[in-house]
Automatic annotation (TrEMBL):
Domain of life: Eukaryota
An annotated GO BP: non-motile cilium assembly
A Gene Ontology cellular-component term: photoreceptor connecting cilium
Phylogenetic placement of the source organism: Eukaryota, Metazoa, Chordata, Craniata, Vertebrata
Protein name in the entry: Protein fantom
Signal sequence segment: none
Length: 76
C-alpha cells in the first residue's frame, strides 16, 4: 500500500500541548537534571567528554559480556 503525499503534507501545523503538573520522585528529578546537563555539552572540556565516553563505552562492554554470560546460562 503506497501513500501519495502532496508537497504541502509537511506543512501541517503543530500545536504545543501543555505539560501536566506531575509529582516527580527524587529519582525522576535527578534524571531530568541529568538530561539538562547532557544538553550542555559545549560547556564541558574535551578531556572530560572523552573520559565520559570511555567510561560509558567500558560500561557498555561489561553489560554486553554479562548479557552473553546470562544467555549462555539460559541455553544450558
Amino acid at each position: 500500500m503506497s501513500t501519495v503525499l502532496d508537497d504541502s503534507a509537511w506543512d501541517v501545523p503543530v500545536r504545543d500541548v501543555p505539560v501536566r503538573d506531575v509529582q516527580l520522585s527524587p529519582a525522576d528529578v535527578s534524571l531530568h537534571q541529568n538530561a539538562r546537563e547532557r544538553q550542555d555539552v559545549s560547556k564541558v572540556s574535551r578531556e572530560e567528554l572523552e573520559d565520559r565516553f570511555l567510561r560509558l563505552h567500558e560500561d557498555t562492554l561489561l553489560l554486553k559480556q554479562k548479557t552473553h554470560k546470562q544467555d549462555d546460562k539460559i541455553r544450558k
